[in-house]
Amino acid sequence: MKSLIEQSHYEILEISRDAGLEEIERAYRLARMTYGNDSLATYSVLDADDTQAILERVECAYRVLSDDASRRAYDRFIAGDAPSERPPAADAERAEAAAPEPPPGAAVEPQPPAPEPLAPAAAPEEDSGEFDGKRLRRARMRCGVDVDQIASITRINPVYLTLLEDERFDQLPASVYVRGFVAAYARCVGLDPELVANSYMARLEGIRSAQRRGWLLGRR
Amino acid sequence: MTAGLEERNQLPPGRSEATRARMIAVGGGKGGVGQSFLVVNLATALARQGHRVVVVDVDLEGANLHTCLGVPPPLTSLADFVAQREEDLGKLVLDTPFPNLQLIAATHSNLATAHPSHSRRIRMVRQLRLMPADFIFLDLGAGTDSTVMDYFLIGDDGIVVMAPEPTSVENAYSFLRAAFYRRLRLAMVSHGVRQLVTQAMDMRNERGIRTPHDLLREIQKLDPDEGSRFVATVRTFRPRIVINAVRSADDIKLGFAARSVCRKYFGIESEYLGYVNWDETARQCVVARRPLVEVHPERDAARYIGRIAQKLSGAARRPAPGGAAPQRYPNPGLR
Questions:
Q1: Of residues A4, A30, A54, nearest to B257 (C-beta)
Q2: pTM recorded for the entire structure
Q3: A40, A43, A49: which to substitute to probe chain B, counting the most B Cβ within 10 Å?
Q4: Contact B159, B34 (CB under 8 A)
Q5: Do A40 and B166 touch (CB under 8 A)?
Q6: Segment B141-160, tens digit of pLDDT
Q7: Pick the residue with more confidence: B108 or A133?
Q8: CA angle at residue B174 from B169 to B179, to 5 degrees?
Q9: Most exposed of A13, A74, A172, B36 (fewest Cβ within 10 Å)?
């Protein structure tokens, strides 16, 4: 019984791990229909916010799983959940160690390339703790999507999304807008929008008011 | 008070699991979605296949089954059993125009006798299980009170009927919610957790519990063991969905969509058993007081019903909605 946040892309689309593209497409279409506006199937149990949240996860899941490369990257991530603790080099060594010895006399086949790390070595996720731009970015990469994909799902200008990740608070608009961006971004990448927005905005407000104090002091 | 109607699982001597009647409860379809239509036609279809079938009209306030089957309004019925005027259910079984198909009717009663006491219900279920039948259908009518819920939960199969209309969908989910929370409440042991479940049933509860998942989180905070029990119980709740009065491809998809919503909202696995298309002769059949599968076996509706009947008769014996064999948890004996 997992919450939306805890579900993988496969669970969101209600398909098996080895689903083919046709099954993914079918599942995507059914989900779009089921959780679309004015859908009969959700009447009286899910409200517009719920269905919106589900649709965003569905979009994200579909984009990742329907593209071979991003699907493979995603599969690797959810399979070996703490590769972030190992530096990239160790992965390469491990791959070489696992490669079978070619039988004597057989043509030597080229070794398969070492698997690339999914994300730059990052600290393991904690359950709580501050949500900063870096964490948002890690969550996005975990989903295997790029900024443009999030932009098209959330309809937020990709420039703002990058500013969020880079924490360019001086270039972001008023807090009330930023909060909305953060919440939408969070939903898209499978995080709790309220938790993340509260944490991010607290950090932003803290830094912005420190900057303001700095200017005041500077003027003296 | 014991948990639900679980005692009835003791089999009488001479009956094994293999020969025990399969009890199928059909509910969720308040007001005109074709619940009785479905019960009568499924029962007839199975009887024509050679199975022995008994249909029971549980809805004392909205008794319809005898009419659908062309049985004259009976002099005695389930109402007599409920009111303790008759102790032997067997005496209330009526023949129908169809071989292998029998009926325990209800007659329109006044409200005072409409809801049997808990011990009456246990007695009824026990006697039903003793009956020499392959299938026993319980038509739950329009209710969503605890009586009806219990019947739904003790069935080997619980079928929820939906028509592709918002009113019907709303009723069906309301029914499922009630059955789901009742199932969970009965499985919880601690008084405090049971209270939480009761609170959750009220959509406007003060704790802000909006979904079954919210409820699980609250329970886990209170008592992790109950939390595990909750999760295990949810897994045993597997209702079946039938969509009636289908007129388009989208209507058919409603079954899959509802199954998805059951997963995402309730966290339960349901089965989309099948659909029946809307048929203009259905009304004529009701007026004629004969089941459609008998009057018009060539129509698509009859074939779709046949397909569902096939699935029911082929279904392996396994725990279903309330669970034919729910886990037994130590029970304090208190409601």
A1: A30
A2: 0.74
A3: A40
A4: no
A5: yes
A6: 887 778 888 889 988 899 99
A7: A133
A8: 125
A9: A172
